[in-house]
Write a structure and sequence with these properties.
Shape: rod-shaped
Strand content: under 5%
Largest sheet: none
Order of helices and strands: HHH
Radius of gyration: 48 Å
Number of helices: 3
Number of strands: 0
Length: 116
Amino acid sequence: MPPLRRIGRPGLIGTAARTAVIAGTASATAGAVNRRQAGKQQAAAEQQAWEAQQQQLAMQEAARQAAAEQAAYAPAPVAAPAQDDLTAKLTQLAQLHAQGILDDAEFAAAKAKLLS
């Protein structure tokens, strides 16, 4: 005679097995969801760090370019005429006047131009 099969509600072992399967599935699903969320958070943090680094590099490059442009457009320092240079020119004018190459009016005009 074949073994008797019980009809109706499952027994204690069947209920425990079903509960274990459901609990295991729920645990596995929760673990997968948590891992996925953690992976997304880590990827977002890495993306933000990369974007911040790129922004900082862009700001540094912009500062370098601004400094280069400022240096390119900065006026060259104007050197004041040296006193020795003025004295040398006046001496040369005096020599030209003494040699007769410049007359009194030309000498006075050149001298006034140098002194102004």
